[in-house]
Amino acid sequence: MNSWSEKYSTNVELIDTQHKKLFEILDQCYELLLNPICLDKYDKILHILDELKEYTSYHFKCEEEYQLSIGYTKFLSHKVMHDEFIKRLNDVNLSEIDNDQDKYLNSLLDFVQKWIVEHILYVDKEIPNNTKKS
Fold this sequence. Notes:
- By secondary structure, this protein is an all-alpha fold.
- It has one domain (13-126): Up-down Bundle (Four Helix Bundle (Hemerythrin (Met), subunit A)).
- It has 5 helices and no strands.
- The protein has helices at 13-34, 42-69, 75-90, 94-99, 101-122.
């Protein structure tokens, strides 16, 4: 499991703070997966999925507004990646969750973690820090 570390820093405080929150949501998912007491995880998975969708949409909107405010030239390709990620989250088949909850949770965690880590390291780190220090 990848938790937040400075290697994910974009040096844009707003973006880094929001990325930390995404890692916290991933941690919730990981904790649920490892919870041996909770046998029926369906409602909790749906809650985490809803939180992930909601927060990711909010984060992408903020990140895209920042990119536009600094005239970031790769904005459109970046937005396409965001839109594809949201579509993937929205295309979740709820019956798959119920068939094998741990397997589904594991695959969701793998997908989201890999996407977020790679997106931060190889795409978000290219966003320049044009914020003024006071």
